[in-house]
Amino acid sequence: MGTKYLLDSNVIIGYLDNKITQSGITFVSAVINKVPNVSVISKIEVLRFNTTETVTEVLRSFFNYAVVYQLDNSVVEKTIDICRNHRIKLPDAIIAATCIINNFVLLTRNVADFKNIENLKIINPWEL
User: Fold this and answer.
1) How many domains, in total, are found in the chain?
2) What gap in Å lies between CA 81 and CA 103, rounded to an integer?
3) Is the pTM for the entire model greater than 0.90?
4) Cβ contacts of 35 within 8 Å, gap of 6 or more
5) What's the CATH number where 76 sits?
């Protein structure tokens, strides 16, 4: 079946702005070509900023193509568990919980934000 990945907000932005290393871009491209997985948190984080209509259209197209994982009870319960055991921002806890519940590897540049969370696998595309 293969490894499945969840893209963090910084990876989505870095990829679309071509600001990841070439080997990272190649890796993320392969992930996106298989239909990217993202958290509803990343959708909110990326689309909340005012930008040009053209950029907004590109971003909305990306999220229409992606599988956007919503909050369900299993993610909520795992988020609560993560927050009780780690000093972590709520959006990051939700993203981590989404990964763990769905057996995803998280693609993020902010590795330190997710340190020491059990059963969370992480790849930093900027370090590939």
Assistant:
1) 1
2) 17
3) yes
4) 65, 66, 67
5) 3.40.50.1010
